[in-house]
């Protein structure tokens, strides 16, 4: 299974990608997590990405595309993958096609998780993440049993720097301008599966899996020029 997950900041891409990766037995590849990990290790990549992330802007395409190309070239990606947070603009969407063509494969579907701005802002403001293992919780919607402590590894939970109000506003603006056209890109290819992200976490997972099973993405596809 080769999927990309699309949707605004805070809609639940990471939450669903973790579950879908486990369900299909493929790696969950998040460019945002790769940047945050690089930053926590203070690598040149992490330090270079930081100023863009803190400002809610996209990290330059050459950096991001290079990172994804390298990651998709690793052996575990040959079984499939769930991409979360990439592609985020049309340049990245076309680059992904090239990368996959080079290794002789293609995407099965692009899943767009949809929710209103009020919902995503509430999800972002209550999000807490584990510093050690990266697990994601929500103070209200998915609370850890013990506040501030990760039940998986015991690590401390923290609030992401880019979840500050001003940065969230900029991330939403960048999403509307740069990433929404990517949804249309996949729709035109007949690969888009749109799901209602307003429902609870388990319901969203179930609806993605059943939409993929029904093969909506395949059936809706209209071959270029043949009809
Ligand atoms: P990235 O890390 O990708 O952030 P994002 O796209 O803004 O999305 P988030 O991770 O904030 O939200 P999510 O949809 O994953 O939601 P989550 O599952 O956590 O990118 C960060 C930055 O890195 C970018 O701004 C950019 O600078 C850079 N970057 C990354 N990729 C890039 C690229 N390709 N090109 C250039 N730059 C790039 O859920 C949110 C909260 O809601 C959680 O608390 C969760 O528990 C809760 N929740 C989830 N689902 C539900 C539900 N159904 N009901 C109730 N609560 C829910
Ligand atoms: Mg995420
Ligand atoms: Zn943890």
Helix fraction, binned, reads 40-55%
Rg estimate, integer Å: 17 Å
Estimated structural class? alpha/beta
Number of strands: 8
Overall outline: globular
Topology pattern, helix = H, strand = E: EHEHHHEHEHEEEHEHH
Bound ligands: BIS(adenosine)-5'-pentaphosphate, magnesium ion, zinc ion
Question: What is the number of helices?
Answer: 9
Structural key phrases:
alpha/beta; 14% strand; 3-stranded antiparallel beta sheet; binds magnesium ion; Rossmann fold; binds BIS(adenosine)-5'-pentaphosphate; binds zinc ion
Your description of this structure?
The protein is α/β, with parallel strands linked by helices. It has one domain (2-214): Rossmann fold, CATH 3.40.50.300. Helices cover 48% and strands 14% of the residues. It has 9 helices and 8 strands. It has helices at 13-24, 31-40, 44-55, 61-72, 90-102, 117-125, 165-188, 201-213, 216-219, and strands spanning 2-6, 28-30, 81-84, 109-114, 127-130, 136-138, 157-158, 192-196. The strands form 2 sheets. Strands 2-3-1-4-8 form a 5-stranded parallel β-sheet, with helices on both faces. A 3-stranded antiparallel β-sheet has the order 6-5-7. The longest helix has 24 residues, at 165-188. The protein is globular and about 45 Å long. Mean pLDDT is 94; it is low at 217-227. Magnesium ion binds next to α1.
